[in-house]
Amino acid sequence: MVWGQDAWCYVTDKARLIQECARVVKPGGVVAFTDWLETGPMSDEEWEALHTFMVFPYMETLEGYATLARAAGLTALEKTDLSVDFAAHVPLYLERVVTQFKQAILDNYGQEMYDGVVEGLTQWRDAASAGKVGRGRIVARKPT
Known about the structure:
The protein is about 55% helix and about 20% strand. It is an alpha+beta fold. β1, α1 and β2 (about 30-40) form a beta-alpha-beta unit. The longest helix is centred in the middle third of the chain and has 27 residues, at about 85-110. The protein is built from five helices and four strands; from the N terminus they run βαβααβααβ.
């Protein structure tokens, strides 16, 4: 089995990543992962702000990941949109920064960093609630 959790959004060449997963998993094995997704249209400015804050080269779509899995010779078993759950959790990240981590960020990194984190998470919260970004799960099997 190959497993990934919310990290493939940082990978520049997602097609190669999935091809390598398909290569190393045994026949009949499973490739399963969750990841942050682009789920709706956004302006160039929104796209740039979201990707720059998280240092993502780009986000894939749920169907895009399924297509990459098929292109790598995998059979998609599950393709689940978890965006409603994602949108419910992003505000919690922002709340924790403001209530729990503010002083530590200020002490270690300064006001400018704290303000940047709050601004970035606010943009992610707004994009998630507007259905522009989300999260998904893909489970695929390598043929035997």
